[in-house]
Write a structure and sequence with these properties.
The complex is a heterodimer of chains A (205) and B (663).
Chain A lengths: L1 H8 L7 E7 L2 E9 L4 E3 L4 H10 L13 H22 L2 H31 L20 E5 L2 E7 L1 H34 L6 H6 L1
Antiparallel strand pairs in A: 1-2, 1-5, 2-3, 4-5
Helix pairs in contact in A: 1-3, 1-5, 3-4, 4-5
Chain B lengths: L11 H14 L18 H5 L9 E6 L6 E6 L4 E5 L21 E2 L2 E2 L9 E5 L2 E11 L4 E6 L4 E7 L6 E3 L9 E6 L3 E2 L10 H4 E10 L5 E9 L3 E7 L7 E7 L8 H4 L6 E7 H9 L4 E13 L4 E13 L8 E6 L3 E6 L5 E6 L5 E5 H9 L3 E5 L2 E4 L1 H4 E5 L6 E6 L4 E6 L4 E6 L5 E6 L4 E5 L12 E6 L15 E7 L6 E8 L6 E5 L29 E5 L2 E9 L2 E3 L2 E6 L3 E8 L8 E5 L7 E3 L4 E6 L5 E6 L12 E7 L8 E3 L8
Parallel strand pairs in B: 14-19, 37-40, 39-45
Antiparallel strand pairs in B: 1-2, 1-35, 2-3, 4-5, 6-7, 7-8, 8-9, 9-18, 10-11, 11-13, 12-13, 13-14, 15-16, 16-17, 17-20, 18-19, 21-22, 22-23, 23-26, 24-25, 27-28, 28-29, 29-30, 31-32, 32-33, 33-34, 36-37, 37-38, 39-46, 40-43, 41-42, 41-44, 44-45
Classes of the chains: A alpha+beta (205), B mainly beta (663).
């Protein structure tokens, strides 16, 4: 469960998500990185370059300062990491399960929030856009690949996202192991007349 | 083919006649490509074919000759990538036109808009080309330029005083400690009003050593005062001969008129061997004279995006008579042109352009001769070593008019022969001729990648030809110059490709692309921009009037100028548009041009600020626009300046758009 906390904190070390835009003029792609607390890219000027592309079709400028989630998401993640450590100390299978379920719920909420932002950027277009394409939306995919005009947009997790997923998996694993060991303990305690179990091992899982 | 060289045995005058016939008779001949294109084997095309989107293996940096520039080609395709403006103004890039680069072309004679560039020379580390910088000499108004190979821009030019015709230059030492400059036209020393026929008495030949610092910055360390010969070409030693430079000379007859005859009388001229490590000792000991010398030193600053020109006032001069062991003369037949040192550093090839044979000196024999004082005589304090005591060997009758030699990585040498129009491959050490191949026509320099370094990369040889005659579709009286590419990986040289070049390609150097590509800069970071008139965002744009000078702080970003409407400019004002390109992406320059301006355009790279000077002469509303097709809305990237009559009250006003759509 400690590992789950550490994996979760990797969100502060690596980007959580990435959107890669590929076009003939951008053979190596323009890669936007979404962090838990900021938006960047594979180069320092990626956001400027994406904003330049977006302005042709009247999309809003991406301004990280105007996205409140980037302020409170880090606090949520920090809190979840603390909860994970508390859970490890408590070392009860139901606590592990509860943490994992809470994390899943938060992830679903996060994805929904991400979708809303994408919808907003993709649909809320300036009426003065130089290029107007009736009926077109420029909303990037939530996950996967989509063709938007001359661009192929690929939306997939980055390293931080995989770590977040791993933290849920680790919590689930801790829950499962704890359950299994508890059952064995019960069986053992009946057989061996109550020898103490090696608790330390599973709290590290 | 061999019988052709029977002519060599006849008198030298016959050689001249032959060369005259060869040069003039081509006009009357039907196209004759025997031995060349007609017999190209089928796989040749694939050897030079670089598929669309693929990269060439080598960069080739070619002198632009009398264009004053450098061109960058790919090998083996021969494709032209870029013309780097160096010594001549270039309207395409605004070089020498915008305020920032005008100081690059400043000299002690004022602004000089042109020169004749000859010998590109790559910087070296441990005798190997390292891809940091390219140096090139300006022959007419003696200068050396340094090009930064992360940006492919000229970043420094230093003028060489006491010199006339900077031909034996720049030719680096093996760790780029120095580049050199030798005068091809000796001039009065110090320069003054004397009778031309007082040449022998008043003229001197000056060799200069230009120290190269760790960031490439150049400084004239010292000059050496030599007899008034014509110092033609040079190469520095390497390996065992590191610490020496060899300069060829002609006109040891010291004549000042009808040189084609008068300077071709001596059987032997000299290669001047200069011990520059010794020179450093003499400088340390204070054995120099500091003499007044006015020369410009121009440096481009990548942070301010601006060049500054500093007028230098003094130079240190060493005189051989005061500095024993500094210079020796190696007698070399006959009016030697190129001097080339083999990769081991042992052999010094004197390409006697009017000689029937190719003379090769030995560095170790030279050392021994110096030790034994095997001197023939002394000229102005310079000992002349005995020819036989320094001679390593002779390539017998290889061709007519040897000019230059380059080397491969297998102990072979390749010499260009101007008169017989061919390249001859010979074995270093045995002096045996291994192969010969014609060139079309009249080859000057040749180039093997790394071919003048300690570690040649081999594979290809490029012939740089002086005339093309019937090789290409004709273009009026002036025909293109050209290079030819040969495969030298086998025993026999094989012609692969002809391709036209810019100006007259003198020398060229080639280097494998992987030594340059990883260091290429894609744009200039805006946060590092220290231009005094920068505008790092549209909020910083403004128009400021100071008397009759107007400064426009302008920005560009796809696809507009900020501001794009300007009022309050008056006839007779001096208007400076300081344009900062806010783009921070690769390959997004913006251009800037103003109708009727007596100026070229600006071409501004991402993150750069450049300044356009304009003196409006007529009232009206003058359009300006972006010249580089930057984006889908490039055609919309335009603006207006209102020019009011002199003395009118139109207030200074500027603007962009109506709403916040463009921030």
């Amino acid at each position: 469960m400690v590992a789950a906390a550490v994996a979760l904190l990797m969100l502060f070390v690596f980007p959580m998500w990435q959107i890669i835009l590929i076009a003939p003029q951008y053979p190596h792609g323009v890669t936007m990185h979404i962090w838990i607390n900021k938006i960047g890219g594979d180069t320092p000027s990626t956001i400027q370059n994406i904003n330049i592309l977006n302005h042709y079709v009247g999309m809003k400028f991406i301004e990280p300062d105007a996205i409140p989630e980037l302020k409170y998401f880090p606090m949520v993640i920090g809190a979840m990491a603390v909860l994970a450590l508390i859970a490890a100390a408590v070392n009860r299978s139901k606590v592990y399960l509860g943490w994992a379920l809470l994390m899943i719920a938060l992830s679903v909420a996060g994805f929904y929030d991400f979708y809303l932002w994408e919808y907003d950027y993709g649909h809320n277009l300036s009426p003065k856009a130089p290029i107007k394409i009736p009926g077109a939306s420029f909303q990037p995919p939530l996950i996967g690949t989509k063709y938007i005009l001359n661009f192929t947009a690929i939306s997939i997790p980055h390293i931080g996202g995989y770590f977040a997923g791993a933290s849920i998996a680790l919590a689930a694993a801790a829950w499962w192991l704890k359950n299994k060991l508890s059952r064995n303990e019960k069986a053992d305690s009946i057989a061996d007349n109550g020898k103490p179990a090696a608790v330390g091992l599973h709290s590290v899982a | 083919m061999k019988s052709h060289f029977g002519y060599v045995h006849s008198a030298f005058s016959a050689v001249l006649v032959i060369s005259f016939l060869l040069l003039t008779s081509c006009n009357n001949q039907a196209p004759n490509r025997g031995g060349g294109a007609g017999v190209l084997s089928g796989d040749v095309a694939s050897q030079v074919y670089v598929a669309p989107g693929e990269y060439d293996e080598f960069y080739a940096f070619m002198s632009g000759g009398f264009s004053g520039q450098v061109t960058v080609h790919g090998l083996p395709s021969g494709r032209l990538f870029k013309t780097i403006p160096v010594f001549s103004v270039d309207g395409e890039k605004g070089y020498g036109f915008n305020e920032e680069t005008k100081p690059m072309l400043n000299t002690s004679h004022g602004f000089v808009p042109w020169d004749d560039s000859h010998h590109p020379e790559l910087s070296q580390t441990n005798g190997e080309t390292d891809g940091r910088w390219l140096f090139i000499n300006g022959n007419n108004t003696p200068r050396i330029a340094r090009i930064d190979l992360t940006t492919f821009e000229t970043v420094e030019i230093i003028e060489i005083p006491n010199s006339g015709g900077n031909h034996s230059s720049p030719f680096t030492t093996m760790n780029t400690e120095y580049v050199v400059a030798g005068t091809r036209f000796s001039v009065p020393y110090p320069q003054r009003d004397v009778a031309i026929d007082s040449y022998a008495e008043n003229f001197k030949g000056v060799l200069s050593y230009i120290k190269v610092g760790k960031d490439g910055e150049m400084e004239i360390a010292f000059q050496i005062l030599l007899p008034a010969f014509d110092y033609d070409l040079a190469h520095s030693g390497k390996g065992k001969s590191h610490g020496w430079t060899f300069f060829t000379s002609y006109n040891t007859e010291q004549k000042n008129s009808l040189l084609e005859v008068a300077a071709s009388q001596n059987d032997k001229d000299f290669i001047a061997a200069v011990n520059w490590k010794k020179a450093e000792e003499y400088i340390k000991q204070g054995k120099f004279k500091e003499v007044p010398a006015k020369y410009a030193h121009n440096v481009y600053n990548e942070k301010t995006h601006t060049a500054t020109s500093t007028m230098m006032k003094k130079v240190k001069v060493l005189t051989p008579a005061d500095c024993p062991g500094l210079v020796y003369f190696l007698p070399t037949p006959k009016s030697p042109h190129g001097v080339d040192v083999d990769p081991t550093g042992e052999y010094i090839v004197g390409n006697g352009k009017l000689s029937a044979n190719l003379t090769v000196h030995s560095f170790s024999k030279m050392q021994k001769a110096i030790e034994n004082k095997a001197f023939e005589k002394e000229i102005e304090g310079v000992p002349v070593l005995k020819f036989e005591e320094v001679l390593a060997g002779v390539v017998e009758e290889p061709g007519l008019g040897p000019l230059h030699t380059e080397f491969d990585n297998n102990g072979n040498a390749y010499t260009s022969f101007f008169i017989s129009s061919e390249v001859v491959k010979w074995k270093v050490g045995t002096w045996e001729v291994l192969d010969r191949t014609p060139t079309y026509y009249s080859i000057g320099h040749l180039c093997v990648p790394g071919g003048d370094s300690q570690k040649p990369q081999g594979k290809y040889l490029m012939a740089l030809n002086k005339i093309t005659k019937d090789r290409y579709l004709p273009t009026g009286p002036e025909l293109c110059h050209a290079a030819q590419l040969y495969d030298i990986s086998g025993d026999k040289m094989k012609l692969l490709l002809d391709f036209p070049t810019m100006g007259e390609p003198h020398y060229a150097q080639a280097i494998s692309a992987d030594r340059i590509v990883p260091n290429i800069k894609k744009f200039y970071p805006l946060e590092e921009n220290e231009h005094p008139y920068r505008a790092l965002g549209e909020k910083e744009t403004k128009v400021v009037r100071e008397g009759n000078t107007v400064h426009v702080y302008m920005t560009t970003i796809r696809s507009h100028f900020a501001p794009d409407n300007i009022e309050g400019v008056k006839v007779g004002d001096k208007v400076y548009f300081h344009v900062t390109n806010l783009e921070q992406d690769w390959d997004v320059p913006h251009g800037f041009a103003v109708l009727g301006a007596n100026n070229a355009e600006l071409l501004i790279m991402g993150g750069q600020t450049e300044t356009f000077f304009w003196e409006p002469k007529q009232e009206g509303v003058i359009p300006f626009y972006c010249t580089d097709f930057c984006s889908a809305l490039h055609q919309e990237m335009q603006g207006y300046v209102r020019v009011s009559p002199k003395g009118s009250n139109t207030p200074i006003k500027w603007g962009l758009g109506e709403d916040e759509f463009f921030q």
